[in-house]
Amino acid sequence: MSFSNIMDSNSYRGQPPAGNTEPLIVARERLLGPANRLFYERPVHIVRGRGVRLYDADGLEYLDAYNNVVSVGHCEPRVVDAVTRQMSTLNTHTRYLHQGILDYSERLLAGMPDAVDQVMYACTGSEANDLALRVANMYTGSTGVIITTDAYHGNTAAVTAISPSLGGAGTLGANVRAVPPPDSYRVPADELAERFAADVSRAAEDLIAAGHGVSCLVLDTIFSSDGVYATPNVLGPAVDAVRRFGGVFIADEVQPGFVRTGEAMWGFDRHRVVPDLVTMGKPMGNGMPVAAMAGRSEVIAPFATGVAYFNTFAGNPVSMAAATAVLDVIDDDGLLDNAREVGAVLRGELAGIGDPRLGDVRGAGLYIGVEIVSDPRARTPDRAEAISLVNALRERRVLISVCGTQGHVLKIRPPLVFSQNDVDWFCSAFADALAR
């Protein structure tokens, strides 16, 4: 079986006994096939959720410190109610007039830079990124794409070709160049921005020499799959560089968007840059299938006037109701402030542990990466220990995963309603896992 860093670093491989979940695992493998991976050495059979808590088939309670899909919490009542009411009234495609999509679009764009003035809808982040690539290609007349070395942008054919973290049989497209992310653990802070821009410029020159030209720079603005690099004000020179070469900047906000970083609505805001295109996905609907690509109307125009785009269920009334309710919860419950304050407490607690295996604790808001190393002086990635810690936490009913090129960075990304009490549970379990 081929290996995928993002899918297999923390996956069930069938070696340890699975206990009472074994029949489900056997049925899953028979019906779904080997491509569908499960988390953890002992997979978890979850049957219910509320807020940041999950419950398995035996009634045991788990702390979800990983789930970004249900951004405002599992089964958030206001989202559930909005979806239920709209589903009981109407759900159809967007070729009929409907007020819901217009109201939501006005509200979404009001939270964007003024230059980002139009939005198109999809059902998944993968579709949104696929659409952004098409728009960029038509606007620039070029096909060359620049990404980071362990990026993940989705699973259509086009975005798989710009998602090296998927690994396995997937390969980068001939028109794709990957550059190292701005690694704040190994590169001095005052060199991050210029070094990253220089790498982007070299990639652009290579694409032009190969005859592809430069279509776009596509970045997850917190570099979540690369290892969670959250230093602010790093992207400006790289964005300027790609525009000098004729390309556009696509900010993939599926992970850092919707107040995840605790500093702004969008990850790109932390870098004081204005994207040409912005893509959104999972957290937008708290689990409902809704995604979007927003952008500058002049960048979108060649595609919009040349292609009759239609995505049957994109922007449907039920998904728009869910997305609207998510914005309501973010605003009403002060989740921007909560992400900033609780995230700072959690990072502080982790940084204060002082265990030499914890080479670096970094992040923004409620997106935290903990670099696990075997040698803190050499800063040597320790994949085995990272996976061991993830599974030790799972045994203590705390759920996280890993990221990074070596699969050695603990990825901590709880729902935005994570509280101080949840921090206490997490840190207690983490200390116990370290002492195991």
- Strand adjacency order, main sheet: 4-10-9-8-7-5-6
pLDDT average, as an integer? 94
**Overall body shape:** globular
Q: Order of SSEs, N→C?
A: HHEEEHHEHEHEHEHEEEHHHEEEHEEEH
How far apart the termini lie comes to: 31 Å
CATH architecture of the largest domain: 3-Layer(aba) Sandwich
Radius of gyration: 21 Å
The helix-and-strand class reads: alpha/beta
How would a textbook summarize the main sheet? Answer: 7 strands, mixed
What is the name of the CATH superfamily of the largest domain? Type I PLP-dependent aspartate aminotransferase-like (Major domain)
* Approximate strand percentage: 15-25%
How many helical elements?
Answer: 13
The CATH class of the largest domain is identified as Alpha Beta
Helicity range: 25-40%
Kindly identify the CATH topology of the largest domain: Aspartate Aminotransferase, domain 2
Number of strands: 16
Return the domain count.
2
**Poorly predicted sequence stretches spanning 5 or more consecutive residues:** none
Organism: Mycolicibacterium vanbaalenii (Mycobacterium vanbaalenii)
Region (Disordered): 1-20
Keywords: Isomerase, Pyridoxal phosphate
EC number: 5.1.1.21
Highlighted features:
13 helices; single chain; about 425 residues; Aspartate Aminotransferase, domain 2; seven-stranded mixed sheet; alpha/beta; Aspartate Aminotransferase, domain 1; five-stranded antiparallel sheet; 16 strands
List strands and helices in order, with pairings.
Layout: H1 5-8, H2 22-32, E1 46-50, E2 53-56, E3 61-64, H3 77-87, H4 99-110, E4 118-122, H5 125-140, E5 145-148, H6 157-160, E6 176-179, H7 192-209, E7 216-220, H8 236-244, E8 248-252, E9 277-280, E10 291-295, H9 297-306, H10 317-332, H11 335-351, E11 358-364, E12 367-375, E13 380-381, H12 383-395, E14 398-399, E15 401-403, E16 409-412, H13 420-434
Parallel strand pairs: 3-14, 5-6, 5-7, 7-8, 8-9
Antiparallel strand pairs: 1-2, 2-3, 4-10, 9-10, 11-12, 12-13, 12-16, 15-16
